[in-house]
């Protein structure tokens, strides 16, 4: 996999903003629950570590990754959150389900970003094997949930910086 050399729990680049003022939704798929629960924990712990308040984090579960899009849409419409983290694991097997699910969820989540003008984060692992998934759910390659949470915080930081700029120039 192309993320072989990247540890998903170590972060480079711009500073990670404090998340105390924001409200987050986490939508997690139950399919491959042993892995998605570890990813969910990673995302939750990372949000808390960066200042988010427990009472400002809503977690909901959907049956499989295919349902992440609609789950995230419900969250966007009814959860009044600033950002949504979608978590799932689709393991490539003999079934064509892999391509159908991955394509659908990638397009669905992309559309939600545009529709709500909010960060809706693709925290979905698409490994070839169960072992590769374990390696990215708190194993030797870190935790994709950590990465998804930091991405949500950084995107909200970016949105905030544009709001401040707008105020400064007065338009
Ligand atoms: C059906 C299915 C299959 C084969 N594989 C996965 C998977 O690896 N990961 C996942 O999150 N969900 C899988 N699903 C379930 C679908 O996402 C969806 O929940 C069902 O097709 C609904 O009937």
Quick structural gist:
The chain is an alpha/beta fold. It has helices at 33-49, 68-78, 97-116, 130-135, 144-169, and strands at 24-29, 57-62, 83-89, 120-125, 137-139, 142-143.
Features:
about 170 residues, binds ligand DLZ
Descriptive account of the structure:
It is a single chain. By secondary structure, the chain is α/β, with parallel strands linked by helices. It has a single domain (24-168), classed as Rossmann fold (3-Layer(aba) Sandwich), CATH 3.40.50.960. Helices cover 47% and strands 18% of the residues. It has helices at 33-49, 68-78, 97-116, 130-135, 144-169; strands spanning 24-29, 57-62, 83-89, 120-125, 137-139, 142-143. It has a four-stranded parallel sheet, sandwiched between helices. Strands 5-6 form a two-stranded antiparallel ribbon. Helix 1 (33-49) links the parallel strand 1 and strand 2. The longest helix has 26 residues, at 144-169. The termini are far apart. Bound molecules: ligand DLZ. Ligand DLZ binds next to strand 3 and helix 3.
What fold name stands as the CATH topology?
Answer: Rossmann fold
pLDDT averaged over residues: 94
Structural class: alpha/beta
- Identify the overall geometry: globular
Tally the structural domains. Answer: 1
Distance from N terminus to C terminus (CA atoms, Å) equals 46 Å
Give the C-alpha Rg.
Answer: 16 Å
Question: How is this fold's topology laid out?
Answer:
Blueprint (H helix, E strand, L loop, with lengths): L23 E6 L3 H17 L7 E6 L5 H11 L4 E7 L7 H20 L3 E6 L4 H6 L1 E3 L2 E2 H26 L2
Parallel strand pairs: 1-2, 1-3, 3-4
Antiparallel strand pairs: 5-6
Helix pairs in contact: 1-5, 2-3
Bound molecules: ligand DLZ.
The site of ligand DLZ has 15 residues, from strand 3 and helix 3.
């Amino acid at each position: 996999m192309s993320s072989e050399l990247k540890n998903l729990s170590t972060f480079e680049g711009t500073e990670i903003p404090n998340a105390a003022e924001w409200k987050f939704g986490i939508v997690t798929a139950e399919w491959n629950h042993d892995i998605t629960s570890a990813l969910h924990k990673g995302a939750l712990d990372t949000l808390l570590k960066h200042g988010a308040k427990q009472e400002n984090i809503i977690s909901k579960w959907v049956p499989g990754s295919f349902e992440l899009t609609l789950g995230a849409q419900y969250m966007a419409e009814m959860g009044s959150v600033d950002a949504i983290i979608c978590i799932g694991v689709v393991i490539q097997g003999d079934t064509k389900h892999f391509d159908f699910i991955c394509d659908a969820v990638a397009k669905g989540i992309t559309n939600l970003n545009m529709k709500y003008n909010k960060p809706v984060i693709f925290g979905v692992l698409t490994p070839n094997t169960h072992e590769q998934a374990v390696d990215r759910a708190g194993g030797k390659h870190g935790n994709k949930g950590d990465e998804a949470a930091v991405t949500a915080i950084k995107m909200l930081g970016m949105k905030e910086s544009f709001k401040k700029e707008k105020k400064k120039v007065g338009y």
